[in-house]
Amino acid sequence: DLHLIHTLSLHTLFRSYKISIKPSFVDITTTVKDVSFSINNKVIGKSETDKSTKEFGPYIPGTYSIVANYKGKYVTLSKPYLVNLLDTSDGITKLSVFEDMNYVNITSEHPDSELFVNGKDTKVRVKDAANFGPIDGDSKIYATTVIDGKKLKSGDYLAAAGATDIDISFDEAINNQNNANYQLEEVKSQLNNLLYNYAVSLTVAINTGDFLSVESYLSNGSELYSQMQGMIKNSYKEGNQESLVSASITSFNISDDAQSGSITSSETYNFITVDGTSTNKTFSHIYNFQHNDTTSSYQFTKRK
User: Fold this and answer.
1) Mean pLDDT of all residues in the chain?
2) How many CB atoms are closer than 10 A to CB 42?
């Protein structure tokens, strides 16, 4: 029967085959709880405790990108992990995420100092920072405190993977502050000398009509430089004589780089007129000053 032979031939040619795919699973381990995991923007679960492992699946064998997300008090993290579910013999692939997440014990000689993580105020003081975290290995920690009325910042500390203790020191900040205070006192001393020498030289310039006597204490081309040239010339013509009684600075306003600023002075001079009358007069001036890098000295630029 030709029809029967044809049917049997087709049945032999187009046999039915079944493909059996063994499902794969992934075991995800994390150091902290509340880390969520997603595939293709779909959350598949989260860690429920610290130092836990949780199994997810089954999945068709292949390569997946599993994204771990964490948002805590001090850090927010998101990181993708490529997982090859074919690279396993028992159908289970192991994945460890955020291995550098940790809790640390923070101490300092200044227990009331305030902690910052990645530049943000944690509202936590060092004395309350036992088992602080969790934070990751890239987290920069520093503290601020007030010493002798000055707010100081410690150096930056990294919560290195596996580290459990961080001791925050302000030694460098204190040394820098001491150096800054010393330098500030040096600047103030130079300004006191500038005022005194200027005031003495001003009287010499007025008494002799010689502007050069006071020129070195004035910034060339400044408003005060031009003003003093005319004032000295006119005072000398009047024939009056002057001498310095006292000159002191009552307040300082110095820029952070100590290159400029202003002072307020109290100056008392003795004036002797051409008829021999002697009178003491006290003035208060505000002087602007700037540093002359060529002469390595301060000079006045303006007076009012």
Assistant:
1) 89
2) 7
